[in-house]
Known about the structure:
The chain is α/β, with parallel strands linked by helices. It has helices at 32-41, 52-57, 63-73, 86-92, 104-108, 110-120, 148-157, 179-188, 202-210, 220-223, 229-236; strands at 2-10, 13-18, 21-29, 46-51, 76-80, 99-102, 124-131, 134-137, 142-147, 162-167, 192-196, 215-218.
Amino acid sequence: xxxxxxxxxxxxxxxxxxxxxxxxxxxxxxxxxxxxxxxxxxxxxxxxxxxxxxxxxxxxxxxxxxxxxxxxxxxxxxxxxxxxxxxxxxxxxxxxxxxxxxxxxxxxxxxxxxxxxxxxxxxxxxxxxxxxxxxxxxxxxxxxxxxxxxxxxxxxxxxxxxxxxxxxxxxxxxxxxxxxxxxxxxxxxxxxxxxxxxxxxxxxxxxxxxxxxxxxxxxxxxxxxxxxxxxxxxxxx
Length: 237
């Protein structure tokens, strides 16, 4: 299981939000690049980088910063935030960043998402962000009427092979992972599942490993020192 530190970029700074709400941010560093280097120095082999400005505006804003992270660290980088058109994705795949994360586009323009996946399947991840078992889109600002099981069916039909499942109600709250929901998603799909949202302790990581997820994204608990990255990586194996 991969341990994947989260780096959220807003206004050029490394921040963490509570439940994705833009007005509930904590700034942890003026340099997302230095944060990335720190996590890599502690053993991270994969980074989860979200362009929050892009997520809220509907188009990537901090791509140059993410490109610098990729260039300077050399590790696997997956990036999300504002990729909602085929043109944006086509431009992205010309960069050295390893994966683009699609969210809103999948649920509002599934046909375009399917086309993007057909062209670049090995460069795309799909985000399944949920609140109260319904899909959340547009930087988690819109809660749709699409239930998780329907969303999984859509994601599978467009050809996705790996998803990031996030319970947004747990994200940034340090209340533990929603293990029941994670297990249900893993049992429902053949796609690889990366779990995110609420990972607070080494016990959470142990539980997720037993749930057969492919990876685990950790945010606030790393920044607040509740989880030591080297220990998390050791547990994950």
